[in-house]
Specification:
6-stranded antiparallel sheet; binds adenosine monophosphate
């Protein structure tokens, strides 16, 4: 029986089917084809048996390429068993192969008159073999892959008025182990056209991941993963062995490890590309090439480090990312303080630190004999405390100097690259001449016309003491008359003195080497003739005061007083402001310990208060020179005061402007009647008043450096912490005196402290109306009073409870002002916000570079409970301890969070935000116009660059540079 023709025009049909099959022939890149019937050029060599079964039908396509298909359609006869077998297919190492077949199957119903034996499936088999030339394989040797039926996955082909469905089926065989295999298709009575057979296996294609290259990899059998080791791409190295797994379906899985670009190269897509000139990469661990740091360059590609510009250096421990640096300039402003045979040298850091933070100081010493003829090295006899070389502080104590010798100390600033620089050392020199000073005087007053003095010689007299010389004169009469007495003993009674007169005594020692320096002045007043003795006049008082070459070293002994009815004798201990003193008060004698300030309002006649407490000065003694400020009642001028038989002194003159009311006059002069009651080195001293002619004036001592707040702002960052503590100590001492007098200041603030040329701070501003009218900081409270909110304790704001304890609160604020060089407390917060914040427990954070102890002391002053705040006496003691042991000041309080760029909270993104955060916002324009627009760009900024752009204040430079260091520590990648 003739086979049924499946389709009316076979060629026409085939062309359509093949076109459809080819249309989907874009195979994925991870498939490797072992056999493709459609692209086979020659004879496929497939075998069909029996002969009347599968039939090969070849057609030429439009490009004359032969296309082979097989069909069988013996549906009219039962018991069909037609085999079509491929050639041997080499498996190419694959353990699993896929067979994709495209075919059409006519359904039996569409064929007219076919019997029930008509099938709609066929079977697919394989046989594994190493032999590529088997000519016969038994049916039983085949392994069945599957029975194939037409299913839903088909492509529609329109052939004339018919719609043909091209089915695609894929099956796989795995765990192949022989060289290859044969495929076979068994037809058992269906009508099939086998259009294409493609055999392929899958691989994981070559890929580069994490800079490691993974080769083409054939997938494993079943679903096993194949582990593959990657190889680092050019110019990279293994960071962690790169590995990946090739999955059975040809995908890469689970990448582990990676390669990284070698120094001088950076990752770009899947390769390592060289750093461009001007940039470098020091370590393979860095991801990107970075711009050469300041003062360095890299002229060629692939630089792993940038070379330093001429005259700039890098130590072997400096990170390659650090700017190249140079040696520092010379230290500045050297000051020497000689004390007998020791000297304290202090200096300011160099203006230019060379761009480094590791500046230390070395001291070089040369000595010359007294006549200056013989000079040479100082030898090993001197002792330097803490050491001679590698000093980190700007201070050193040199002891064991020889007396009467000229020394030259050269202070050298050294940093990490000083040794690398061939340029000469930058030194600053101090010349000193040693001497010996009598350091301690004990004195004893005996009677109205004699005084007995006793003293201690120098602690470390070099050479035997030959004798002592005592010089004395009537106070303020030195120019006219003085007497010199000599003694071998360290005690002397000076006789023939005038009663009720103040004398000044000084003592010096003479050794083999010559005279030492005079010790400090001691003032003693002889008793008045009509003295009313209290206690035994013979039981003398011994007071010890240590005055060593002008350095304050205070020793108290016992004090005992002889007091008269109208006059008070007192021993003035210039160096100790806290010493007990007799006070002369309102015509009555007050005993020590009970001195009290008298409020001018307690006088019925306020003019009497002025007369009692202030000396009337003749206007002709005053020479006004220039205006230095504006007070509430009129101008403040500086000028000179020359009282008869006294030295001319500089004074400040406050005058009451014309047209004043009687009340204004009273208020103006009230300041004098208050000030006139005080006598303390840290309280502004009243010289007197002019009330008998106009204008009415108040004359006080002149304070060359004006008010403390302005002074600190002007000298931002220029003082050592010891100097600042010294100022604070003075203020505390003045306040202790005031609180002992039961005087409450109410407006203690840096603006109301005056500073003289020796940096001595004195409390001022005592007028009665001052808090109400005068202080621009004072604001009206809800209760109607006017109060400087930021400086005032909460209980004083809330219910006007002003006490010495509220002054202590204000003192804490002054401490903060001093350490922050005149920063405004609570910055720009509103008064209301300040009150609220304080009530909620907020306290000012430590200013920059503030020693921890000082901030703790501030916090103590700001205790909510006023009885828990320290007393001024305790504050003075604490500060004295710090001055004696400056090492305690080394531990700095943590920087406030908004200033410390290493804290995670500090999240600035732009130069402007950063400057605002460190409160240097005033320099935004300077930075912008100097081209510093990104945070990366400021990382290596130097002092000289800051100066160039107009940041000239040393304190501001320090603040900016220390914050930059913080930013460096935080770490920033600069992308080229
Ligand atoms: P006062 O009216 O006391 O606040 O003084 C006004 C300004 O004059 C102060 O801020 C100081 O700058 C200056 N001044 C007042 N007293 C003195 C003084 N004794 N020495 C120098 N300057 C002073």
């Amino acid at each position: 029986m003739a086979p049924v023709r499946i389709y009316p025009s076979l060629r026409f049909l085939l062309l359509h089917l093949l076109a459809a099959a080819r249309a989907v022939r874009n195979y994925p890149e991870n498939e490797v084809t072992l056999l493709d019937s459609m692209s086979a050029l020659g004879d496929l060599g497939w075998e069909a048996y029996p002969a009347e079964g599968w039939e090969e039908i070849s057609v030429m396509d439009e490009r004359n390429t032969p296309m082979r298909t097989y069909q069988v359609c013996n549906v009219m006869e039962a018991n069909q068993n037609n085999w079509l077998r491929t050639r041997h297919i080499a498996r190419d190492g694959a353990q699993r192969v896929y067979i994709e077949i495209k075919f059409t199957l006519r359904d039996c119903n569409s064929l007219p008159g076919v019997p029930g034996t008509c099938k709609e499936t066929f079977n697919m088999f394989y046989y594994e073999s190493n032999n590529p030339n088997l000519w016969f394989i038994k049916e039983s040797q085949y392994v069945k892959i599957d029975t194939i039926a037409a299913d839903e996955s088909f492509t529609q082909v329109d052939v004339g008025d018919r719609v043909m469905k091209l089915n695609t089926e894929v099956r796989d065989i795995s765990n192949l182990s022989k060289k290859g295999f044969y495929l076979a298709f068994q037809d058992v009575g269906a009508c099939i056209a086998l259009v294409s057979v493609r055999v392929f296996y899958k691989k994981c294609p070559l890929t580069v991941l994490n800079l490691a290259q993974f080769p083409d990899t054939v997938t494993g059998g079943d679903s096993a993963l194949v582990e593959v080791r990657g190889a680092c791409v050019n110019d990279s190295e293994e960071f962690e062995a790169p590995r990946m797994y090739c999955s059975a379906d040809g995908g890469w899985l689970v990448p582990i490890g990676r390669c990284i670009c070698k120094p001088g190269f950076e990752e770009h897509k899947d390769i390592c590309q060289p750093c461009r000139p001007g940039s470098y990469k020091a370590s393979s661990m860095d991801t990107y090439c970075t711009k050469c740091p300041p003062h360095s360059y890299s002229p060629q590609e692939k630089a792993s480090e940038c070379a330093c510009d001429k005259d700039f250096y890098r130590t072997h421990t400096d990170p390659r990312s650090m700017a190249c640096t140079r040696s520092p300039s010379a230290p500045e402003n050297p000051i020497s303080t000689i004390n007998e045979t020791s000297v304290t040298l202090e200096w300011s850091p160099p203006r230019e630190n060379g761009g480094r933070g590791d500046v230390t100081y070395s001291i070089h010493c040369k000595k010359c004999s007294g006549d200056g003829r013989k000079c040479g090295p100082c030898g090993s006899g001197l002792h330097f405390v803490p050491r001679q070389f590698g000093l980190s502080d700007t201070k050193v104590l040199v002891t064991d100097l020889q007396p009467h010798t000229n020394y030259t100390f050269s202070i050298e600033a050294v940093n990490g690259v000083s040794d690398l620089s061939p340029s000469p050392k930058q030194l600053v020199s101090v010349n000193i001449t040693t001497s010996q000073t009598v350091s301690v005087i004990l004195k004893e007053r005996k009677s109205k016309d004699s005084v007995t003095l006793a003293w201690q010689g120098p602690d470390r007299a070099s050479g035997a003491i030959v004798e002592y010389e005592v010089i004395y004169y009537e106070k303020n009469q030195r120019d006219q008359n003085y007497t010199v007495l000599k003694t071998k003993s360290n005690m002397m009674t000076v006789e023939g003195l005038k009663p009720g007169t103040t004398y000044v005594f000084r003592v010096r020692a003479r050794t083999d080497g010559g005279y030492g320096n005079y010790g400090g002045e001691i003032e003693l007043e002889t008793s008045h003739e009509d003295m009313l003795a209290i206690g035994d006049p013979n039981q003398s008082t011994i007071l010890a005061v240590s005055i060593a070459g002008g350095i304050v070293l205070l020793i108290f002994l016992v004090a005992c007083f002889v007091v008269s009815g109208r006059h008070c004798g007192y021993i003035k201990a210039k160096q100790d402001p806290d010493e007990e003193k007799m006070q002369f008060q309102h015509g009555r004698v007050k005993l020590p310990g009970s001195r009290t300030y008298i409020h001018p309002h307690t006088y019925e006649d306020p003019n009497q208060a002025v007369r009692d407490f202030a000396k009337e000065i003749d206007a002709s003694c005053i020479r006004i020179e220039r205006v230095i400020g504006a007070g509430e009642f009129g101008e403040v001028c500086s000028g000179r005061l020359k009282l008869p038989s006294k030295r001319e002194i500089y004074v400040a003159i406050k005058s009451l402007k014309a047209g004043y009311s009687e009340k204004q006059r009273r208020d103006f002069l009230s300041e004098a009647s208050i000030m006139g009651q005080f006598d303390h080195p840290n309280i502004i001293r009243l010289e007197g008043v002019v009330t008998r002619c106009k204008p009415v004036m108040i004359i006080t001592e002149y304070m060359e450096n004006g008010s403390l707040d302005t002074f600190l702002k002007k000298h931002d960052g220029q003082f050592t912490i010891i100097q600042l503590v010294g100022m604070l100590r003075g203020i505390a001492s003045g306040m202790k005196y005031l609180s002992d007098m039961n005087y409450v200041h109410r407006d203690l603030a840096a603006r109301n402290i005056l500073v003289n040329s020796n940096l001595v701070c004195k409390v001022s501003d005592f007028g009665l109306s001052r808090v109400l009218e005068d202080d621009p900081e004072a604001a009206y409270t809800t209760r109607g009073g006017k109060i400087p909110i930021r400086w005032t304790a909460p209980e004083a704001i809330a219910y006007r409870k002003f006490t010495s304890a509220s002054d202590v609160w204000s003192y804490g604020i002054v401490m903060w002002e001093v350490i922050s060089y005149g920063e405004r407390p609570y910055w720009e917060m509103s008064n209301q916000d300040v009150i609220k914040a304080i009530d909620e427990g907020y306290r000012l954070p430590a200013p920059m570079d503030c020693p921890l102890v000082l901030h703790q002391l501030m916090l103590d002053c700001w205790e909510k409970g006023r009885s828990e705040r320290p007393k001024f006496g305790q504050i003075v003691n604490t500060l004295d301890k710090l001055i004696r042991n400056p090492s305690i000041l080394k531990e700095l309080a943590n920087c406030s969070m908004w200033e410390d760029p290493t804290t995670p909270e500090f999240s600035v993104g732009t130069v402007e935000e950063w400057l605002d955060a460190i409160k240097m916002g005033q320099y935004k324009e300077n930075f912008a116009s100097a081209g510093y627009v990104t945070l990366d760009s400021i990382l290596y900024i130097s002092v000289s660059e800051l100066v160039k752009m107009g940041v000239t204040l040393v304190g501001h430079q320090k603040k900016i540079l220390s914050s930059v260091q913080g930013l460096q520590a935080r770490g920033t990648h600069v992308h080229v």
